[in-house]
Specification:
Blueprint (H helix, E strand, L loop, with lengths): L2 H10 L2 H5 L7 H5 L2 H10 L3 E3 L2 E3 L17 E9 L8 H11 L1 E6 L10 E9 L7 E5 L6 E8 L14 H13 L3
Antiparallel strand pairs: 1-2, 3-5, 3-7, 4-5, 6-7
């Protein structure tokens, strides 16, 4: 068989003929049993491995992985130093919206806040630095209230830089101080 014979043979063959016709997935095969597991995993965010954040994303359509942005994850955020006047679900929603997209507000067991902090679940863009405080003029009297933020289950993270841990940040901050003019 020479090169011309091989080229002629390849021209008449196709993968479709070799592998058979295209088959269609039945509707129940795509979602059967996976929805509950997927929901449970997404509710458990944020996930981490070896102290690094793992970002999960819910696929749209067929779930082409190249078109899914893996830059947002949900965190429970505790908002401390909130004035008692502001310990409401509506204010919790407003304060949470200053951090990210509000997904849920924890009202506690009895529906009343215990006065220690507000707890809000927000979706945060992990490409941006995390906020550490909120500054709010509560009464409109030009007196700002500073509220501290605590991210639950946050892995070893540098608030100043987005792409490395506190250990690496310490090294870069120390080296910047050495080479400072």
């Amino acid at each position: 068989m020479d090169a011309a014979d091989i080229a002629a043979l390849c021209a008449v063959m196709s993968l479709k003929e070799l592998e058979g016709p295209v088959r269609r997935l039945e509707g129940d095969l795509k979602t059967d049993g996976n929805q509950k597991d997927r929901r449970r995993v997404l509710i458990g965010e944020p996930w981490s491995f070896d102290n690094f954040l793992i970002v999960l994303a819910k696929p749209n359509g067929k779930g082409d992985i190249l078109n899914i942005p893996f830059n947002k994850t949900a965190f429970w955020v505790q908002i401390h130093n909130v004035p008692l006047l502001c310990m409401t679900k509506q204010i919790g929603s407003f304060l949470g919206s200053l951090i990210g997209d509000v997904e849920e507000i924890d009202e506690g067991v009895s529906g009343d806040y215990d006065g220690k902090f507000l707890r809000v679940r927000v979706i945060i863009n992990v490409d941006q630095p995390l906020r550490r405080i909120l500054q709010v003029d509560v009464l409109g009297d030009r007196e700002e209230s500073v509220m501290l933020l605590r991210y639950e289950w946050l892995p070893d993270h540098c608030h100043r830089h987005t792409h490395h841990t506190i250990t690496k940040a310490g090294e870069s901050i120390a080296s910047a101080a050495i080479f400072k003019p």
